[in-house]
Structures are given as structure tokens and as C-alpha cells.
Amino acid sequence: MTDRADAEARRGGELDEFLRYVAHERGLSPQTVRAYADDLREFGEFLDRYYGAPEWSWGGVDRLAIRSWMGDCATRRGLSRTSIARKVSSVRSLYRFLHVEGRVDANPARAVRTPKRERHLPGFLTRDQMDGLFETAQMRAETGGFHGLRNLAIVELFYSAGLRLSELQGLNVPDVDLVSDRVRVMGKGRKERIVPVGRVALRAIRGYIGAREQVIAGATRPEGRAMFVGQTGKRLSVRQIQNIVGEFLRGVAGETGLSTHSLRHSFATHLLDAGADLMAVKELLGHASLSTTQIYTHTSKERLKAVYRKAHPRA
């Protein structure tokens, strides 16, 4: 084997070990593992150009090379500061793993300051818009049979429990406890949390469960544990749920770029507007850091400023 082939094989093997580690030991989602893989392969391709030869090793990379890569991402590729920060985080995680495993002497990414991320206020619906969305969903549930009942249960549970799309899509029937009025959620990093569910959402779920049982009973090869299924008894995909929710959102807000995550944003914003404790909302959302939850307080402040500017005679 040539020096070039040997270097590439060694780097590739170490990268594969890291990806297996984050997938199996840390329990990260397949989407997150793919993002790590894409970021690190892009970084490797840049280092091929940076060093002018493919014989480099992970242990020979210094912080200047990483900073040059960040500059390349910003100037040549036009990536946002948020995207660059995420990519640097991927590199930092790789080197942390390699250092612990004794493959490199130090983590060069630790000395690299990531760009300050842009803070985008999340999109959310007003109380009136939420009322309009649920009114439409309720009307369709009364006339739309299985699909109408299922779609009402989906939007009610999204908003009542503040779930992520992946969390709702992965729910199984035993996860929803109709006796104790709560749902067991498997969040990011396979962290489990228990979230209360409101009476209106529970009523919608109970209405859907009966229709679901009929579909499952008549299906050839149903996914019996899946909470939200299609007419064939198979678990709904992420895209199918996005389409269902997207139609309701367009009905009340038009083409404003809102998504399924907007129901989660609305859940948090409305709780805080009503005086809920920030730490309690953090736990309900399953956030690892309080700073992630605090963005919703910014949303409320911006809305208060807008009301002030509009209403105050000398604003």
C-alpha cells in the first residue's frame, strides 16, 4: 500500500470509529450522525487542498488549518455563522474522541473560537391563529373519517406537549398514557422525558384511537405499535406529517415559512406569555441548556416592543 493510500485508509478508519461511537455509544439520531459525517468529510476534502497532498493525518492538523477552513466556508461557500459554528462543533467532537482514544496528542479545535451565532426569533402562531387551526382540524375530524380524526390528534398533541417532529413521528401507542394524561417522549440523544397532555388533546387522541384500531385490524402487515399510521397501517413518515401540518398552517397563516416546529415554538411562547416558569418550560421542551429556552423570552419581548411602538402616542 502506498503512503497516500495508507494515510487515507487510516483517516477513514478513525472517522468511521468516531461515527460508530456517536451512533451507538452516545445514541445520536441517524440525521445527526449523517450531519457529522458530511461536515467531517467536507473538512477532509479541504485539508487535501490546504496541505496540497493527501498524506496528512488528523494528528498533524493545527488550529490555523481549521481557521482557514472556516474562512473558506464563509467566503467561498457563503455559509452562515450558524452553519460554520455547527461544522466546527463536529470537528471539535471528532478530536475530543480521538484524544480520549489516544490517537492524537491534543484537540486543535479547542483553541478555535467559533463565530457568534445569529439569533433568529422562532416562527410561531398567535392564540387566534391557533384557535383557527384547531377549528379547521375539528371540522375535518367531524366529516373526514379516519384521516380527519388522526390529523386532529396530530396537531393537538404537537401543541399540547410541545413535541419535536421526530418525537411525534416515533411515538408508539404505549407511550401515550390516557389514564395519567401524559406522554413518554424519546428526545435528542435518546433522553427520555415525561410530558403532560391537556384534556382537549386527550379527547382528540381517544377519538382517533378507535379509528386507528379499525385500520390496524384490516391491514395486511400493520405496524401495530406505531401511534400515527396511514390507511395501510404503516407508521407515518416525517414527510407525511410535515404535509399534514403544513396544510393546516397555510390555512391560518398563508405562505409564511412556518413548519411543524412552529407548533412547538407556539407552545413555549404561549406558556411564557401566560407566566410559566422558564425552568419548567425548559424541562417540558427537553432542552439541555437554559440558553436554548431563553430565545422564547426574546420572542415575547419583541412582541411587547411592537405593541408599544404601535400603541404609545410618543413611541
In short:
By secondary structure, this protein is mainly alpha-helical. It is 62% helix and 4% strand. The chain is built from 13 helices and three strands, in the order H-H-H-H-H-H-H-E-E-E-H-H-H-H-H-H.
Task: Explain how this protein is built.
It contains 13 helices and three strands; from the N terminus they run H-H-H-H-H-H-H-E-E-E-H-H-H-H-H-H. The protein is mainly alpha-helical and 315 residues long. The model has no long low-confidence stretch (mean pLDDT 89). It has helices at 3-25, 30-51, 63-75, 81-100, 127-143, 145-161, 165-169, 199-218, 238-253, 260-273, 278-285, 290-293, 295-311, and strands at residues 176-177, 182-186, 192-196. A three-stranded antiparallel sheet has the order 1-2-3, with no helix packed on it. It has two domains: 3-111, DNA polymerase, domain 1; 131-261, Orthogonal Bundle (hpI Integrase, Chain A), CATH 1.10.443.10. The radius of gyration is 24 Å and the shape is globular. Helices cover 62% and strands 4% of the residues.
Distance between the termini: 74 Å
Proportion of beta-strand residues = under 5%
Encode the helix/strand succession as letters: HHHHHHHEEEHHHHHH
State the helical fraction: 55-70%
Note the total helix count: 13
CATH topology of the largest domain: hpI Integrase, Chain A
In CATH, the homologous superfamily of the largest domain goes by the name: Intergrase catalytic core
The low-confidence parts are none
Shape, principal axes of CA atoms = globular
- Tell me the total number of β-strands: 3
The CATH architecture category of the largest domain equals Orthogonal Bundle
Q: Using only CA atoms, what is the Rg?
A: 24 Å
Q: Strands across the major sheet, in which order?
A: 1-2-3
Supply the number of structural domains: 2
